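S.,

Sequence below, as promised.
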Amino acid sequence: MSKVVAAKTKKPSPRAPMKERIVQTLKAAGKSGATIKDLAAKLGKSYGNISVWFHTTAKGIKEIKKVEPGRFAWGS
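The prediction came back faster than expected:
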């Protein structure tokens, strides 16, 4: 007789999705914007994770402007 092991259901994380968290941080940073390194530290994510997010997902968000290399700002 074999036992059936119930799969553990994964609860959604209480934190906001990364997009909303990054947008909020950029809005708070103002016109000077924020560096990828600063965003990674504030959000508790890796530099690579944030960097890839900007090179993929952020391209579709027209309000996010590249101020200088590695620095982005919210330009509404």
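Helices lie at 18-29, 36-43, 47-55.

Coffee later?
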